[in-house]
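Materials and Methods. Structural model of E3 ubiquitin-protein ligase HERC4. The 914-residue sequence of E3 ubiquitin-protein ligase HERC4 from Acipenser oxyrinchus oxyrinchus was retrieved and submitted for structure prediction as follows.
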Amino acid sequence: MEDESGRQQKPQRKIKELILANEEKVHTLDCGKSYILVLSTTGKMFQWIIHSELPEVVRPKLMQTLCTTDIIQVACGNRHSLALSKDGQLFTWGQNANGQLGLGKGEPSKPSPQPLKSLSGIPLAQIAAGGDHSFAVSLSGAVFGWGRNHEGQLGLGDTTDRNQPSHVRALEFKNTGFISCGEEHTSILTKAGLVYTFGAGRFGQLGHNSTRNELRPRLVAELWGKQVSQIACGSYHTLAFISSSGKVYSFGRGEHGQLGNKKTINRIIPLPVKLPSEKCYSLVVDRIFAGEIQSFVLCSEKQDSQASAIVIPLRPGKRIARIDNSLMNKWIARSDPKSRKITKIEITMLFSSPACLNASFLSNNEHFRTTNEIAGLNMTSVHKMFKTLSEHGLLFQVATAVQKNLLPSLNKAPAVGEALRVFLILPELIAILYTLDRSIADITAALADAIIRQKPHSRSLLKSFWMKLPVTFFERVVQIHHDASSEFILKQSGVSSADNSKLHMTLYVLRLLYNVNTKAGDRIPKSKFYIENIPLECVYSLLMYPCILDMKTKQHVLCADCEKLSHRNEFGGFQNNILINRDTILRDTLLRLKQINPIQYQWPLKVTFLNEPGEDAGGVQREFFSVITRELYKSAQEEFKLDEKSGLLWFISENHSEVYHSVGVLCGMALYNHCVADFHFPLALFKKLLKEKPTLEDLKELCPTEGGNLQKILDEDEDCVEDLYLDFTIQEHELVPNGKDIAVTKYNRKQYVDEYLDFVFNTSVKKQFEDFKEGFSKGCPSDMWRLFLPYELMAVLYGKHIIDWTELEKNARYDGYEPTDQTIMNFWRVFYELNEEMKKHFLAFLTGSDRVSVGGLRTCRIIIKDNGYQNPDDYFPDPSTCFLVLNLPNYSSIDILREKLLHAITYHEGFGTR
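The predicted structure was written out as tokens:
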């Protein structure tokens, strides 16, 4: 027998029958060079090894290693195979000389199927095998290739073999729907009907009008606009079918007539094949197939109801299982014990498989755009699904499968974001469990553990998903980790080491979420992260998670640590004594700070004003800081830059004075000694102390005019930016190399603003700030100030300017008086008659400062005392030295009380005199 070229052909025996064991029926099959794989309709897989010529009857043997696994797709290379199961697992086996099994470096050939763990969790839609290379396509169109790559058949831009699946980045967002592999080339079909080919091209099988190899996917231009619906690769030729026209195009090697053009020559561009169906109008093309050196077209009778342009949907094979409304309705409808048992089996399978869960609840076609920011999930559907399962009593079965099977199996380093959808889905399950009064601590800890196990790249990708998650769902992720952490903390007394480990897992993730929330501009209030009523004995073991501590707790920790350091030295007889002349307070203080040994800052501070005898029990030092900050502000222009609009201070870049170090010491000392003092620095200073980057909003606070002008540059119409004639300089300093030669345009204005801010807050004052920071750390030897957020640290140091004066009366206690005594009632009547300024004078008269801590006057519990004066009308009210005791004589009338009180608070000269 001769072919068209006249060469002798060996006679081939025809297969008369293919029989499977146990009356199984064939669903699909694929062939390699030395074996046949057959997939039955029940998901069982059979294999027949070809030893010589095919017999009359082929009887494949059941593959025992996968006999309990429901297989839905198979693919054969020359001497290796792939199989995809219903629960989303991918198995490979056979020869591995070029890494075509994808099992990693150094792995030998495998005679039995091995799970490909690197693609675990990714919902795969299709698998394909070429000569010695393999491919898998995810539901959202991500393409992975591995194996031999000597001709660029993996599309990765090089010719290096891959022993593990590699993401083909060049095909991102191309919406890949189907893939077919030849011996050394690969063809991709997108959902939009575009065809991309790459790999070996020496026979023209790539269709690019050349015989050149392509190392990256390249669009087949001749098929562009034709909306291809099917593709098939033979060893060295390619077929494409356009359903709208009913035409099949072929290109590549034609030596054996496989191009269907009655010739045996190669073709380097796609040209239509003249099919018998074009003559017989009752036939339409259903499917196309390509063998090693053959091509097949499957046709069927055209139905009367069929339109002339028939679109055959792309069907790469069965899909992995997923949860949808149809399946949910089946579960709900089943009521008898037998069918409920089937439901339980299905629930266990689906919710034990990360791939199946990640394949569910996709957001229509948006999931094809899954990126670092788009997860491709319909979160509303997720929530409704778990709510429905809860309403029908199925949620606990789900939770059991998730905690026992799914969470421990999650991939540590998935290649794409599709595998991370599970981390967005499961919080909805846990949140509904919480509404059922079920403990969520253990399952949340298991989820947190899975998140922590993720490699840095995957965790970074997950944080991007969290950042774009709708606020309602993001808050639920936060809430479950918050509530689980609370549960662990409440039972921490006598807690096991395992539970303590779980606590740190949930807190670690809560901290990640907090950082994401901060970076996203506080999408939910910071208070959502606070855990209330943490036992004091537990607080110190949780300081690495400051996000869970509210301001009150942080203040307590700071005060306790400062007291601990201070008292330790006080008991040793050490004190940090400062003697100051009130008239020269600023000069004396700066001089004294130069003389102090840094270790003395840990000692209890005791301030004495020259020629003003009096014991400092706290009030004198508060007055000291109040006075020193006022004096510092008066002389600010000598050492600091003062903005007239904001009234705030900043460093002078040209000034290298030692004052910055000394002022830093004063700030630290005030904080360490629980004194409030307004140093008139902006929030940006506290951001820098806490290693947070100042923003344009901070410049607006510090210098409203300057910051406002920068904002206008950003907001200006694009075409007007160039008219400002700005360049990359500030104060003759170039913000970037050759900045004076770079004009600010609509394209680089954001960079200009960023460089400007960096110069103002960092570059120009680096030495000055470092001096201040060093002094601050000396002045406050406790490191607990680092727990605070910038605005919190600023508030603790500066105190509150707006005061609720009724709190002073609510917290007042009486010694020798009753609240109903006439003198007390008169006192409060007179006090409330005072204007705001006079009330603050009274506060300074009583406590040494006209500002209060962030706790407000709730923390200022005064005692109003009757000292039993013989002639009360002759005495003025006076405070005891900062024990918050007001010695109030029992005046005969309210007028005398008013007169005496006004005189006392107007003319007082400081605590040292009393």
